[in-house]
C-alpha cells in the first residue's frame, strides 16, 4: 500500500467540516439552480404577487385553515386577481375573478392546460374526448363553450321554473310527514 503525501493526523476536524460544508453548499446550489422555477427566473418570468413567504415553508403558516374565501378576498384586494402562494414546496395560484380564470382558460390555454397522456385513460378507457381529459385545442375550446352554454350562469336561469316546481313538490311531500326524510329527498 502506498503512503499518502500527507499525514491524516495533520488534517484537522475543522478542515473536514469546512470541506463537507462546501460540498453540501455546492450540491444545494446545483439542485436549486436546476429546478423549473430557477429556469423560469433566468428566462425573465416573474411570479404573481402574493403574501410574503418564509424561507423553507413558504406561506404554510399564513395560509388560511378555515374560511379561506375571506382570506382570499382580502388578498385579492391587496395583491390583485392572480395570487401566488407556496405551501412548503407546493406552488399554488389563486384566481379571484372570472376574468382572470377566462383569461387563463381561453386566451392562454395552450400554455397552461396541457394534460399528461396516460395510456389507461386515453387508449384503454377511451376518455380522450371527455372535457376534463382533452388536450387544449380547437375541439376542447368548442366543447368548453358548449358546456358553459348548457350549465353556465345564464343557462341555469332557464331551469328556474323546473327547480322551483321541484322544490314546491318536495315541500308538499314534507307537509305532515314524520320519519326519515332521506327517501323523499333522494327520490
UniProtKB/TrEMBL annotation:
Transmembrane segments: 12-32
Pfam family for this entry, one: p450
GO molecular function: heme binding; iron ion binding; monooxygenase activity; oxidoreductase activity, acting on paired donors, with incorporation or reduction of molecular oxygen
Alphabetized UniProt keyword annotations: Heme, Iron, Membrane, Metal-binding, Monooxygenase, Oxidoreductase, Transmembrane, Transmembrane helix
InterPro entries named among the record's database cross-references: Cyt_P450, Cyt_P450_sf, Cytochrome_P450_fung
Matches recorded under Gene3D superfamilies: Cytochrome P450 (1.10.630.10)
Cofactor field: heme
Keyword Heme tagged: yes
Family to which this protein belongs: Belongs to the cytochrome P450 family.
Full protein name: O-methylsterigmatocystin oxidoreductase
Organism: Serendipita indica (strain DSM 11827) (Root endophyte fungus)
